[in-house]
Design a protein that fits this description.
Length: about 270
């Protein structure tokens, strides 16, 4: 998970008279209510096969329709949920929701390896419970396990690398696939690649959005794609906003693309 920066947060910036602790407490209270009142919604963003241009999958991204604040970004509340432990309930909900929505999403896809990817939070992977939950959800819904991709960053494994490796291996055994999110940033680097059974690399938007103006970023993107392929991983470029970026990535042999060029995250009813 990207580190939280209070100065970037609209929900916090609005209320500078109170201390962060008070605001955190209020937010934790609101999150509990949001879970009860079903104020969360999953949005889905297309991920396209760059060579054929075909839709291959979707990333599930959580949205919060706050009764007072309006739409609250996940960057603004997930870190609080992480601290309070509420992230486990949220995480389970997102997983369930994405798998429940999958049959509808699936009908939009005409690709040989269709998938929906769900983001994992650090404290979701601290016990055996999680692996069982994933297996139960997938089998109850009769979903082919390989169609569920779990996205993680190094922050997911950093606290307890041995346990994480054990749990991630169990998920792979159960048939799910893993993607390393935000590759190239401090959250995900080479260490994660060589240690964990990860099938997909997602190159962070920071590099993609600069690759046409900075030769340095372009080189990093190129080297990342080569590295992934030499490790038999496939690659998703995040944050593609222009046709020129798409063409440059296609030229470099990148497998998949995600970004506003293909579509913004949207409610299931608009997909
Ligand atoms: P992420 O997993 O790296 O997700 C990609 C983020 O980039 C999303 O932001 C998406 O809306 C945004 N994005 C995609 N394409 C473009 C583009 O072309 N241009 C720009 N400017 N942005 C683009 P979002 O939805 O605000 O999510 C932010 C982060 O919050 C995610 O980063 C992920 O780390 C976390 N997150 C979101 N939903 C969940 C969830 O259900 N569970 C967990 N644990 N984390 C989540
Ligand atoms: Mg992600
Ligand atoms: Mg990402
Ligand atoms: Mg990212």
């Amino acid at each position: 998970q990207p580190a939280f920066d209070p100065s970037q947060s609209t929900i916090f910036r609005r209320d500078t008279t109170r201390g962060v602790a008070t605001q955190q407490l209020r937010l934790a209270h609101d999150i509990a209510e949001a879970l009860r009142e079903e104020q969360f919604e999953m949005f889905y963003q297309p991920i396209c096969d760059l060579s054929s241009g075909r839709l291959a999958g979707f990333e599930a991204l959580i949205r919060w329709h706050h009764p007072v604040e309006g739409m609250v970004s996940p960057m603004d509340f997930l870190w609080v949920a992480e601290q309070t432990g509420q992230i486990r309930e949220i995480g389970l909900w997102t997983l369930q929701r994405a798998c429940l929505d999958w049959p509808v999403l699936r009908t939009r896809i005409n690709h040989h390896k269709p998938f929906v990817s769900v983001n994992l939070s650090p404290s979701q992977l601290t016990g055996d419970g999680f692996v069982g939950e994933v297996k139960t959800i997938v089998s109850d819904l009769q979903m082919p396990p390989r169609e569920l991709k779990l996205e993680l960053t190094e922050t997911v494994i950093i606290n307890n690398p041995d346990l994480a490796l054990q749990l991630l291996s169990k998920l792979i055994e159960a048939g799910s696939t893993l993607a390393l999110d935000d590759f190239g940033t401090g959250h995900s680097g080479l260490d994660a690649l060589h240690r964990y059974p990860i099938g997909t690399m997602k190159i962070d938007r920071a590099f993609v959005s600069q690759m046409l103006t900075s030769p340095h970023s372009a080189k990093i993107v190129q080297a990342s794609i080569e590295l992934a392929h030499s490790l038999k991983m496939d690659v998703v470029a995040e944050g593609i906003e222009s046709e020129d970026e798409r063409l440059a990535l296609l030229e470099l042999g990148c497998d998949y693309g995600q970004g506003w060029l293909f579509g913004k995250p949207a409610s299931l009813k608009n997909i």
